[in-house]
Specification:
The structure holds two protein chains of two kinds. Chain A is mainly α. Chain A has helices at residues 7-29, 36-43, 46-61, 69-81, 83-86, 88-111, 116-134, 144-150, 159-177, 179-189, 191-196, 201-227, 238-248, 260-279, 284-312. Chain B has a six-stranded mixed β-sheet, sandwiched between helices. Chain B has a six-stranded mixed β-sheet with strand order 14-15-16-13-17-18, with helices on both faces. Chain B has a four-stranded antiparallel β-sheet with strand order 2-1-4-5, with helices on one face. The interface between A and B is medium-sized, with 23 and 29 residues.
């Protein structure tokens, strides 16, 4: 369309570029990281973050924000380390019930026209309270089959990477490529238009929140499979990580503009950022601040690209 | 209502009914109110197969409300709605409207900006699904675009948000005319050409005629009377929520349409004694609207009430904001301090969680404060004085602002602006949704304050309110197109300037 590479293409490539820069930096500082074992070590905690980011992406698609995802993932991890191991049937029922609660929260937000930030902030304390009731002290044991899945050694490429790629492609197909996905994203872009075309906004919102619940459950299970035991605070930081992952991956808070592939890349980038900072021998005290700085740099770059786009238009 | 017009010799009753019974849609006695505002006061309207019905009327005449009811996005308060001979009043919705072949292109666009053209087409056609849906939806919409707007330059993969406003409008129109599996009998076009240039508009109107000759029906709403007269078979005029005139387009001229839209009788002039305040002294506001090409300026003198007229969204609010900015920025275009009365109470005006008194005195708080500390007693006295002065109906000023009716909330906003020391008060269509009694009280206050030397710049969409102004500027496309003193002011002049038909009649 244009003589130059269009800003939209640059924007779509930005998440991949920032991850590549991060990886190159890591490999330069620590060449031994460039191996199956090294990647596995750096990325084994990336999969739960990728699932949580995908959950957040579902909610952001319909112009809402989920501040409860971190404590929800913690709760699912606690369920995974207790009920799911001791009484598998009850465990599955609890997890299915959790997804139902997420769907109900979506319905409540739509029907009462409540701000999602308030509702999910309240829910975050509910999930946290349930986790503390379930596991007052860190402990529990993950089911053996779950550990086996998560720690499965795939040939050549670590499991976490393969699973992340699969996750990105599946959600991309469902949300970006399918006919139903167009309606779901449209309800974030212009809800009135979707309603005027005869679709139910309640249904789209409930669908997206239920999907968020499903991904939250997967995040909790993959996390507890990795750590083998759980505690009530295990994933609290996932709330902000997941939001950062979606935004880093090219998504926007409103308007239904999201990118599942970008979001997974964003989640991996955030996971790698911690490794890079360790390799740079930055003390853990400063790491959170440095992670924030990386986020700000990437977002500033995107704003520059957006400005270029606005000028081109 | 139109008994004295010669053209009424046509034996068509003035309630919008056509003579034939071959109707697609028949509305009877449809009413609809929003709070205290009666948007539709009993409308009868028929649309028959194979006709283009032109619908005209000033802002707020109820056209868009009527079309929303037809499209199923609003429920009528009372009355009946018969589609294809079946009474669907009770169960009417967007889905039912579409199943019965009724589609609407809304004034504000109904496309999702984050989706592609093909995806937006799919939103309207649930039947396009399964493998290859994107290709089929794209082919459908691009085919329609080719048919209506040859040379449109839009591809199915374009993201709608990246398209220009005009192209978005083209996509929306093409989408409304596209058919996948259902039927299509009636398309409502609400101001379809507002963001199209003349060539594309002509393409659309030509297509509308082709659609009509193929047996379809169209309701065309437009402020461009040329389009209505050249395209429509029959013209229905609405005013104050009623159909006041319905005649074949051939029986109309520009002049007769304008006359039907506004009240023809010359109303008695208000304040005939009040001499113009112009000519004496220098103006305290002198500003050129941003999109003004000629040297015309908008001026305001001390103690003057200046009205801004014209169709909604033609630069009046932008001009008010420009005056406000100029005053705040210390520009010499505006001499004196300003206060703003917002028209959109809910978003721009009230602090919903505050009390009435707090809402009323927020602009004066700094003046009353002592050493940066709020002076409660002074504020209470000021609020009480204004309550007395403009009659805010409440037992206690400490009650929350939302306990008041809309009209009384608006009075509080007036009290806020008038209670400040501002010499110039800017009003952004503040009387929306205010009942007539309250309006009269506010008019009196404005008049009294003007006599004491305050100036008012008053944007209003209601022609009646212009009669309270000393001087009126009519806006079109962001610029002043007419400059009328009170003596020159008539509704017809305002309408003519708004509709750009100066030479035609």
């Amino acid at each position: 369309m244009t003589r130059f590479v269009s800003p939209r293409v640059i924007r779509a490539l930005l998440p991949a570029l920032s991850m590549a820069v991060l990886l190159v930096a890591i490999f330069v500082i620590q060449p031994r990281a460039m191996s199956y074992f090294g990647l596995n070590l750096m990325l084994n905690l990336a999969l739960p973050i990728a699932f949580a980011t995908m959950a957040q992406l579902c909610v952001i698609t319909v112009n809402d924000l989920d501040l409860s995802i971190g404590s929800f993932v913690s709760f699912c991890a606690c369920v995974g380390a207790t009920f799911l191991n001791d009484t598998p049937l009850l465990g599955v029922a609890v997890l299915v019930g959790c997804v139902g609660v997420y769907a109900a929260v979506g319905a409540l937000i739509h029907l009462r026209n409540l701000p999602s930030i308030v509702v999910t902030l309240g829910m975050s304390f509910v999930w946290l309270g349930c986790s503390v009731l379930l596991l007052p002290t860190p402990g529990g044991t993950a089911p053996a089959w779950l550990i086996a899945i998560v720690k499965f050694k795939t040939p050549l490429i670590p499991f976490a990477i393969l699973a992340s790629i699969a996750l990105a492609l599946i959600v991309h197909a469902g949300l970006m490529k399918s006919a139903a996905g167009a309606v779901l994203r449209g309800s974030g872009g212009n809800p009135q238009a979707i309603a005027r075309a005869g679709w139910s906004l309640l249904r789209t919102k409930v669908t997206m929140f239920a999907l968020a619940g499903c991904f939250g459950v997967l995040a909790g299970l993959s996390l507890v499979g990795m750590t083998t035991s759980a505690d009530a605070n295990i994933a609290l930081r996932y709330t902000l990580l997941s939001i950062a992952g979606v935004i880093l991956g090219g998504g926007e808070f409103v308007g239904g503009r999201v990118s599942p592939i970008g979001a997974v890349l964003g989640a991996l980038t955030l996971a790698l950022a911690g490794s890079l900072l360790s390799f740079m021998q930055i003390s853990p005290d400063w790491q959170i601040g440095a992670q924030g700085a990386i986020l700000i740099v990437v977002l500033a770059l995107r704003t520059l690209v957006n400005r270029a786009e606005a000028r081109a238009a | 209502m139109c008994s004295s017009r010669p053209a009424a010799a046509f034996a068509i009753p003035a309630d919008g009914r056509a003579l034939t019974t071959d109707s697609i849609v028949r509305l009877s006695h449809v009413e609809r109110s929003f709070g205290a505002v009666r948007a539709l006061a009993g409308v009868d309207l028929d649309v028959v197969a194979g006709e283009c019905l032109g619908l005209v009327g000033h802002n707020g005449a109820g056209k868009s409300t009527l079309m929303q009811i037809l499209a199923g996005t609003l429920q009528p308060g009372s009355g009946s709605l018969v589609v294809h001979g079946r009474d669907l009043t009770a169960a009417y919705s967007v889905g039912v409207a579409q199943a019965n072949g009724v589609r609407c292109v809304f004034q504000e666009l109904s496309l999702c900006p984050n989706l592609s053209v093909a995806e937006n087409a799919r939103i309207l056609h649930p039947s396009i699904r399964g493998f290859g849906w994107r290709r089929r939806a794209g082919a459908l919409i691009v085919g329609k675009l080719d048919e209506i707007f040859p040379g449109h330059g839009i591809t199915a993969g374009d993201i709608v948000g990246d398209l220009s406003l005009g192209r978005r409008q083209m996509v929306e129109i093409a989408r409304a005319f596209s058919v996948s599996d259902g039927r299509l009998d009636l398309v409502i076009l609400d101001e379809p050409t507002s963001s199209l240039d003349s060539i594309v508009s002509a393409q659309l109107l030509a297509f509308v005629r082709r659609f009509i000759s193929a047996g379809g029906s169209v309701i065309l709403i437009s402020h461009l009377l040329n389009e209505i007269l050249s395209t429509a078979d029959r013209v229905v005029v609405m005013r104050d929520g009623r159909v006041v005139d319905a005649r074949p387009a051939a029986a109309h001229s520009h002049g007769s349409l304008v006359a039907a839209m506004g009240s023809v009788a010359v109303e008695e002039k208000h304040g005939a004694g009040g001499a113009s305040k112009r000519g004496s002294g220098t103006p305290i506001v002198e500003i050129r609207p941003e999109r003004q090409r000629d040297s015309r300026r908008l001026t305001v003198h001390r103690g003057e009430i200046v009205g801004l007229a014209g169709l909604a969204g033609h630069g009046q609010t932008a001009t008010l904001r420009a005056i406000f900015r100029a005053a705040r920025g210390g520009s010499n275009a505006v001499q004196g301090s300003v206060a703003f009365v917002a028209g959109d109470r809910q978003t721009d005006g009230v602090f919903p969680l505050w009390s009435i008194a707090e809402n009323a005195i927020i602009s004066s708080g700094a003046r009353l404060a002592r050493f940066g500390v709020i002076n409660r007693a002074g504020e209470a006295a000021l609020a009480a004085a204004w309550k007395q002065k403009i009659g805010i109906r409440t037992p206690d000023l400490a009650n929350p602002i939302l306990s008041l009716s809309g009209g009384n909330q608006q009075k509080v906003l007036f009290a806020r602006a008038l209670g400040s020391e501002a010499e110039i008060v800017l009003m952004d269509d503040p009387m929306r949704g205010v009942d007539i009694g309250t309006k009269q009280e506010v008019y009196a206050i404005v008049k009294a304050e003007a006599e004491r030397g305050r100036s008012f710049v008053w944007y209003t969409t209601e022609l009646d309110e212009l009669k309270h102004c000393d001087h009126v500027y009519v806006f079109r496309s962001g610029a002043v197109v007419a400059d009328l003193s009170r003596a020159e002011l008539t509704e017809e002049k305002v309408l003519q300037s708004s509709f750009e038909i100066a030479e035609a009649s």
